[in-house]
Amino acid sequence: MSFSHLFRERQIIIRSDHGVKYLRLSPLRQKLFAGVSACSILALATWSLSTLTVLSDIQANGVAFVQAAYDRLTGHVAEDETAEEESIPEGTVVVQTEASPTERIAELERRLEDAEAERRRLAEERDKLEAERLRLTTSASAADKKAAALAAQQEAIQQLIKRARAALERTQRNVSQLGLEPGKLLAMGPRQGMGGPFIEFKRAGRGSPAHDNLVALGDSLDKLTDLQRAARAIPVGAPLSAYGLASPYGIRRDPFNGRMAMHNGLDLAAPQGADVRARAPGKVVFAGRNGVYGNMVEIDHGFGLHTRYGHLSAISVKQGQSVGIRDKLGAVGSTGRSTAPHLHYEISFNGKTIDPRKFVETKQHVF
């Protein structure tokens, strides 16, 4: 199709106060003007389309930015959302839109509900932590009290061990000073009645300091108890309330023939009829006439210890009778091989006589 008929030569008449002018438009000029106009219109259309696209993007980005800003103001924005917000390029045109009052109120109510739920959760967590703290505090306090009690108990046991060992050493020393060996004395003692089935006791704390302390205390107390029981069988003190030493223990000149002889006891001079008393508990194994001893009483005190009381004028006990300390056994006399009233006093250990002088001069409170 040809557009030549549209561009015929034309004339434009222009009237003004100065006269009339004629403007001639040739076909070529008309074609050029039409081309320029078409290009202008096309350029204007393209610019309008681009502008609409940019405005659409601006509107979308603006809505997102406004939502992020609102979230930040209400304190409930997520970290990733904040990061996206901060990554908006500089220079981006933002179009702010404002939510309606109803939407804002609804959003605030939702946020308040979430905040209240979070507060309740935190309160429950706080109560749990407080309960756990109280439990741990109570447990720690109980543990501290238990540790203090155990420490005090161990200290008390240590003091008991020291006291038991000191008493044991003191008793052993006193026994040794009498000429007796503590070990032999205990060995001569009667065996205690014990028995029953063997049932092993497995202690969980075996080998611990507390267990070792208890074992050490038990051993010390057992030894002390045995030795004190043996010490109570030792006849200490004088069998007379008043006396004079007429003849010691050992080698002496015989009062009848003048020859040297062994004297197995002490001759304690005292008035006729003075009370003779036992110096330790025991059992009477002899009470009667015994040759050169005259009227004699012999007592078995246990642990291998025996005492003899000779030349008595009278006997106050019978054979087989049990006597206690300071019980009357008889009276001073001069029966048997004797020159005058006195008490022949003997002590024997394990069948052998020993010097009674230390026993007589030792006070009872020593044991």
What brief labels describe this structure?
367 residues; 14 strands; ten-stranded antiparallel β-sheet; alpha+beta; two-stranded antiparallel sheet; Glucose Permease (Domain IIA)
Can you identify the CATH class of the domain at 244-366?
Mainly Beta
Q: Could you estimate the helical fraction of the residues in percent?
A: 40-55%
The CATH topology label of the domain at 244-366 is Glucose Permease (Domain IIA)
Would you report the number of β strands?
Answer: 14
Radius of gyration over alpha carbons? Answer: 64 Å
Query: What portion of residues belong to β-strands?
Result: 15-25%
Name the CATH superfamily classification of the domain at 244-366.
Glucose Permease (Domain IIA)
Overall body shape:
rod-shaped
Tally of individual helices: 6
Q: Structural class, from secondary structure content? A: alpha+beta
Distance between the termini: 154 Å
Low-confidence stretches: 76-84
Spell the H/E element sequence.
EEHHHHHEEEEEEEEEEEEH
Average pLDDT, all residues: 81
Descriptive overview:
The chain is built from 6 helices and 14 strands. Among the domains are: 4-74; 244-366, Glucose Permease (Domain IIA), CATH 2.70.70. The termini are far apart. The protein is 46% helix and 21% strand. It is α+β, with helices and mostly antiparallel strands and 367 residues long. Helix 3 (101-177) packs parallel to helix 5 (209-231). A hairpin with a 2-residue loop joins strand 1 (10-16) and strand 2. Strands 3, 6, 7, 8, 9, 10, 11, 12, 13 and 14 form a 10-stranded antiparallel β-sheet that branches. A two-stranded antiparallel ribbon has the order 1-2. A two-stranded antiparallel sheet has the order 4-5. The longest helix is centred in the middle third of the chain and has 77 residues, at 101-177.
